[in-house]
């Protein structure tokens, strides 16, 4: 290699040939868009020396706290912290949560250096309570550092980023867990086939998704992780979601149709990621990742904040044993006139992760409360979200997940007005299962996220297209609120409406569901909001209606 200074911690015999100095030696790029394209294309991936220069530049430009530990701090404290211990026998900080240090072709000196750097970071960042991704970051940066002190400084700059709109690495269990929930929500929307497989073979699907960061920061081979990290430093945290989604898509493609034991699916994915070179190249992995038409950064931040808020409300801020989400619908105490336990569990696998820990609470039953829309509203008001289930006289079953409290209908002064958010969806269960989500999720070309106000744009980092306003937690802007998007017409955001004589779900060109005031008759058809097929016979008579809420297990 041309730059041995970068490799004093590396076992050269183990280094993968794909990270040799075979590529360009300089990067003369100043425009962000060009830099993003070069990172995605792997412009500096073939040059160990150039990658080191690019990392130096990108990390130097991260906005940090005024007092951020640098190389000189490391030199001052490392002797006192390490003492006379052998580097290889040094304990790892508690915040790595027993994560093993990836070897990444490091020699003995390099593996010991990672431990020393992590201990010094723990000393300088006492507020970090949970950060299992950090050993992988340090191990990778050590490849591109002259010495331990430089690697320490680079890592500190990543950790000390003080731009609220630029998230890099989770540093608390609350942030980590909400990221896992957010990833689960994204899988539910963008990898539905893989999600269906996970639900079928795992007792607790969120436990599987909670491993997503480990796939990237630990299981991915060095040359793959380095390619991901290249783009991550340029584009930010959203890249990690993209790559993890792509991994799950490839896993499903390879394993679909093969028998999977529920106890082993988590380990199966880890093994798949570790051996990913047998299936897909780094180029194809990134190509798949960026082909996913993901929510805007703003929407993902709002979803993350909503998940954090839900965890705080449940008192989950430190690591603890999680309840089996799959068992939120308990067979022994679940009773419905419309759906079975299995069907309700299938529906539960579709709902946002922040409500998946809740248990179903029957709010309204036409057989119990009567066939009255007024009584339906009375029973449902004050609950958000709700689940609507309908059974026709032909034994067809359909329904809707409704994101917003039905009391919102009162804001329209007695007139029929639409409200709700893009988290709403409609579905049918009988005669076959089909879910229809907001049309914008699968067809983002119909809209584009609204641009920032000029004052906000001036304050935003150059590589961020959106930032989330600093609203108080109790006024958190809803995830996928229609006002966040420039929609061509209102027909794409007609989620739910309720009047005295009818209830409507979905609008524009028709209605996904229309129910009369006596809960006696209904109709269904294609609508622009959900781009759905009829959910049952187009004109139907109602046998039963139920509305379900979401109850925190601790409040029972």
Explain this structure.
InterPro entries: Rab-GAP-TBC_dom, Rab-GAP_TBC_sf, TLDc_dom. It is a peripheral membrane protein. Interacts with ARF6. Keywords: Cell membrane, Cell projection, Cytoplasm, Cytoplasmic vesicle, GTPase activation, Membrane, Phosphoprotein, Synapse. The structure is a single chain. This protein is of the alpha+beta class. It is 39% helix and 11% strand. It has 21 helices and 13 strands. Strands 1, 2, 3, 4, 5, 6, 9, 10, 11, 12 and 13 form an 11-stranded antiparallel beta sheet that branches. It has a two-stranded antiparallel ribbon with strand order 7-8. Strand 2 and strand 3 form a beta hairpin. The longest helix has 18 residues, at 173-190. The chain is elongated, with a radius of gyration of 26 Å. Mean pLDDT is 86; it is low at 1-5, 321-326 and 450-475.
Name a few traits of the molecule.
13 strands, 11-stranded antiparallel sheet, alpha+beta, single chain, disordered N terminus, about 550 residues, about 40% helix, two-stranded antiparallel ribbon
Instruction: Please state the CA-atom Rg, rounded to the nearest Å.
Output: 26 Å
Number of β-strand runs: 13
Largest sheet at a glance?
11 strands, antiparallel
Kindly report how far apart the N and C termini lie.
64 Å
Shape: elongated
Helical content (DSSP H or I, runs of 4+): 25-40%
Task: Give unreliable regions as ranges.
Answer: 1-5, 321-326, 450-475
- Mean pLDDT figure: 86
Residues in β-strands, percent = 5-15%
């Amino acid at each position: 290699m041309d730059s041995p200074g970068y490799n004093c911690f590396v076992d050269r015999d183990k280094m993968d040939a794909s990270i040799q100095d075979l590529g360009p030696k300089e990067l003369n790029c100043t425009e962000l868009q060009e830099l993003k394209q070069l990172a995605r294309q792997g412009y500096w991936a073939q040059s160990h020396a150039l990658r080191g220069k690019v990392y130096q530049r990108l990390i130097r430009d991260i906005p940090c706290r005024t007092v951020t530990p640098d190389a000189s701090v490391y030199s001052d404290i490392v002797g006192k912290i390490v003492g006379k211990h052998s580097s290889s026998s040094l304990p790892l900080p508690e915040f790595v949560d027993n994560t093993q240090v990836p070897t990444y072709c490091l020699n003995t000196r390099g593996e010991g250096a990672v431990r020393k750097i992590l201990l010094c970071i723990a000393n300088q960042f006492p507020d970090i309570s949970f950060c299992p991704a950090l050993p992988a970051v340090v191990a990778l940066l050590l490849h591109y550092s002259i010495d331990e002190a430089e690697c320490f400084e680079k890592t500190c700059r990543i950790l000390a980023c003080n731009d609220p709109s630029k998230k890099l690495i989770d540093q608390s269990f609350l942030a980590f867990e909400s990221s896992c929930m957010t990833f689960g929500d994204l899988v539910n929307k963008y990898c539905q086939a893989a999600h269906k497989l996970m639900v079928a073979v795992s007792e607790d699907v969120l436990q599987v998704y909670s491993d997503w960061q480990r796939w990237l920061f630990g299981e991915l081979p060095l040359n793959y992780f380095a390619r991901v990290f290249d783009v991550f430093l340029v584009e930010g945290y959203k890249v990690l979601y993209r790559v993890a989604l792509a991994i799950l898509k490839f896993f499903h493609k390879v394993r679909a149709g093969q028998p999977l034991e529920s106890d082993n699916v988590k380990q199966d994915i880890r093994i798949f990621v570790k051996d990913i070179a047998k299936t897909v190249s780094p180029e194809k992995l990134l190509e798949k990742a960026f082909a996913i038409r993901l929510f805007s950064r703003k929407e993902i931040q709002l979803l993350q904040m909503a998940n954090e808020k839900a965890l705080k409300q449940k008192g989950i801020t430190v690591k603890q044993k999680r309840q089996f989400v799959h068992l939120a619908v308990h067979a022994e105490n679940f009773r419905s006139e419309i759906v079975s336990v299995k069907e309700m569990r299938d529906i539960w696998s579709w709902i946002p992760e922040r409500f998946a820990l809740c248990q179903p609470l029957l709010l309204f039953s036409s057989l119990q409360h009567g066939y009255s829309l007024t009584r339906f509203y009375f029973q449902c008001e004050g609950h958000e979200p709700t689940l609507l289930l309908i059974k026709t006289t032909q034994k067809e079953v359909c329904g809707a997940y409704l994101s917003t409290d039905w009391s919102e209908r009162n804001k329209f002064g007695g007139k029929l007005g639409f409200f709700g958010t893009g988290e709403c969806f409609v579905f049918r269960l009988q005669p076959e299962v089909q879910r229809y989500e907001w049309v914008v999720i699968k067809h983002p070309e119909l809209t584009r996220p609204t641009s920032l106000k000029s004052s906000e744009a001036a304050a935003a980092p150059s590589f961020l297209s959106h930032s989330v306003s600093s609203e108080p937690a109790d006024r958190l802007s809803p995830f996928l609120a229609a006002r966040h998007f420039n929609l061509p017409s209102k027909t794409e955001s007609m989620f739910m409406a309720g009047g005295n004589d009818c209830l409507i779900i979905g609008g524009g060109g028709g209605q996904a569901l229309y129910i009369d005031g006596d809960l006696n008759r209904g109709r269904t058809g294609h609508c622009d909001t959900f781009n759905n097929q009829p959910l049952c016979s187009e004109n139907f008579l109602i046998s039963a209606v139920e509305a379900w809420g979401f109850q925190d297990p601790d409040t029972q």
